[in-house]
Design brief:
Blueprint: H1 2-15, H2 20-29, H3 33-45, E1 51-61, E2 81-84, E3 93-97, E4 114-119, E5 128-135, E6 150-158
Length: 165
């Protein structure tokens, strides 16, 4: 399933359809045909996937109260670690966030949309999600169009141990 979504994301990026600007335009227009195709493909493979509309906030290393470790005791990973309300989404859940597909990654690649629910926070209650962007305020720049917006979050599986880098 993950390979199929990765392939769809790669095709979208190759076609030039999935960029941060596209994500912002889709958010403001309420239409995201490519994201809908990906979600529909996921739903066809794994019926009953739970979709959430969660209000996103960004956080970075260097911000007050942000440590180097998540709530599992693992290192936080830029553009992968998500903080959630564990009453809504259990920790160790792999999440797919369609609005992040195609965003630039710190290593120069593009985001495949997968995040790892490995952190929690005192302000993360209910339908909210914090996305870790990396080191310093500048790491949030590629994702600023998504800050404070409602994102489509789909449970895509579980992971063991610490999230992959």
């Amino acid at each position: 399933m993950r390979r199929l979504v990765g392939l769809l994301a790669a095709l979208a990026v190759a076609a030039g359809f999935t960029t941060a600007a596209h994500a912002q335009n889709a958010q403001t227009s309420g239409s995201d045909p490519l994201g809908d195709v990906i979600i529909n493909a996921l739903s066809a493979i794994t019926p009953g996937l739970a979709d959430f509309k969660l209000k996103a906030t960004l956080y970075h290393a260097g911000a007050r109260g942000v440590g180097a470790l998540d709530s599992l005791g693992c290192k936080v990973v830029a553009m992968r670690t998500a903080a959630i309300d564990r009453n809504l989404i259990p920790r160790r859940t792999v999440l797919f966030i369609k609005e992040t597909v195609g965003l630039p990654m710190p290593d120069g690649g593009v985001h495949d949309g997968y995040w790892y629910a490995s952190d929690v926070g005192g302000a993360i209650k209910g339908e909210r999600i914090d996305l870790f962007t990396g080191s310093g305020r500048g790491s949030m720049s590629p994702m600023m169009p998504l800050n404070l917006s409602k994102l489509t979050v789909t449970k895509a599986g579980q992971f063991k141990g610490c999230p992959p880098k």
